[in-house]
Design brief:
With about 130 residues, this protein is an alpha+beta fold. It has a single domain (about 20-115), classed as GTP Cyclohydrolase I, domain 2 (2-Layer Sandwich). Helices cover about 20% and strands about 35% of the residues. It contains two helices and six strands. Strand 2 and strand 3 form a beta hairpin. The longest helix is centred in the middle third of the chain and has 16 residues, at about 75-90. The chain starts with 10 loop residues before the first strand and ends in a 13-residue tail after the last strand.
Length: about 130
């Protein structure tokens, strides 16, 4: 196999650190295991962040997400773990991670986690008529 899962995340220098801009990613193939039953849990991760000095490298993100496939983790714990790791690696101005887990036992779970730099504030919204 040419690639293996890894718990490492890589970054590269933000090409426009003087500007606020948002990077959005949809990761539709997240899987981990239920820590109680060992059965697979499936989720779509929605990541959005405003980079400061660094951006996440996509192949490393893919291999990092893959590393959860055989791990038991509660939805709330794994979403916070991923957000914390991204925040430590990138130090973004703002980060939001939403994990939308598939229905299990008739319950649809969404976990939304946010991290932000202490003094960062978004620009006010612009409404065009």
């Amino acid at each position: 196999m040419p690639s293996q899962p890894t718990s490492d995340l890589e970054s590269f220098a933000n090409p426009r650190p003087e500007h606020d801009y948002t990077i959005r990613m949809r990761i539709p193939e997240f899987t981990c295991l239920c820590p109680k039953t060992g059965q697979p849990d499936f989720a779509t991760l929605e990541l959005e962040y405003v980079p400061d000095r660094a951006c996440v490298e996509l192949k490393s993100l893919k291999l990092y997400i893959w590393s959860f496939r055989d791990r038991g983790a509660f939805h709330e714990a794994v979403t916070n773990e991923i957000a914390d790791h991204l925040a430590r690696t990138l130090s973004p101005r703002f980060l939001r991670l939403e994990a939308r887990f598939k229905v299990r036992g008739g319950i649809h779970t969404r976990v939304i986690v946010e991290r932000r730099q202490p003094h960062w504030r978004p620009a006010p919204p612009v409404t065009l008529s």
